Amino acid sequence: MTTTITDIKVILTQPGPSRLAIVKVMTSEPGLYGLGCATFTQRIHAVAAAVERHLKPFLLGRDVARIEEIWQMSMVHGYWRNGPVLNNAISGVDQALWDIKGKQAGMAVYDLLGGKSREAANVYVHAHGSTSSDIADHVKQYMADGYRYVRVQQGFYGGKSTDLHKPAGAPDGAYFDPSGYRRDTLEMIDFVRSEVGNEIELVHDVHERLNPADAVLFAKDVEQYRLFFLEDLLAPEDLHWFERVRAQCATPLAMGELFNHPLEWRTLIEGRLIDFIRMHVSQMGGITPARKVADFAHAYGVRTAWHGPGDTSPVGHAANLHLDIWSPAFGVQEWYQPSELEYEMFPGLPVVSDGYLYPQAGPGLGIDIDEQLAEQFPIQEIVEEWTQARLPDGSAARP
Ligand code: MG
After folding, report:
1. Assessment of whether the complete model's pTM goes beyond 0.85
2. Which residues are part of the catalytic machinery?
3. Is the dihedral of CA 73, 68, 263, 311 positive or negative?
4. 397 part of a folded domain
5. Tens digits of per-residue pLDDT, 296-315?
6. From ligand 1's centre to the CA of 354, what distance in Å?
7. 85-105 residue pLDDT tens
8. Does residue 41 belong to any structural domain of this protein?
9. What's the domain range around 278?
């Protein structure tokens, strides 16, 4: 008998700094449901409305087995397609359908995808601090805990942002000084490398903040420190400049967390202009497109490093991990440090041991949500500050 979609709901919760959106798809089989990540934290109400007001009426009654068809139809059903809100909404349903299919089959999602390529996923974690020595100490703590890949950042994105030469009347808030950032970051990486040696793999995230010429210069300057990769060097608007970066240095490049359109990743992979592709899986539409990108990347020798900080939900982290365990193209997985509350709220949230992230036993995505506990942590109304970044003269900068 066909199992159909009987209800779809969005669970909004905030167990930490980030507001999370989890989609729950219920089915005609008693007790059978799936979970998916639809977390676009800055526009979370828009995603919830897209799921409940637009996708749900169109998907009720459909056969849960037809994941691919549902994904293709969902992408074009609104006629105007792509974009972070709709892709996240589609991802919530898509991941939930993979979860359901796994539960029906009694198999983990990585088994549905083709089985394990590895037992666990190497992760990279975030070391930050206001001084180079703080950051070096943070890296050493991670090394003592068994981590072998660490992202190093001074201050928040954009460096120290102190001693800015601002005009009178420039507003308070987040600032970014491009030349100060490049200078301070190179000094910091030089210091950290000298302190921690060459065994540890270092990553640095530019967060798409530099203008193209500065980005080329920075990638050349940082080459000598042998980063594992330089993350999001250019903004999506400036992708053509990757050719020039590539022509001038051998710094490994990772790109993609803001991408939501196939032409963004396709061009970079085909041109072998990057080494790691790293979309936010819910922002690209879920597991269905991510597995295709992983296979496409593999054909070109590009590896995956899916986006995975705290504004990916625990369900999204589980989805990332199933892709990592399966894909031959996997490189490294970004990882945050979930709180005890998140482990309690999301039974099955994967656990790191000795620098490796292990999938939990159990079919589907292997993760659940304690809805009563989630209800006790409702989302806050937040107006993000850090995405209101300014250049030293007070004008707007891309965050
Ligand atoms: Mg990043």
Report:
1. yes
2. 157, 207
3. positive
4. no
5. 999 999 999 999 999 999 99
6. 23
7. 999 999 999 999 999 999 999
8. yes
9. 112-365
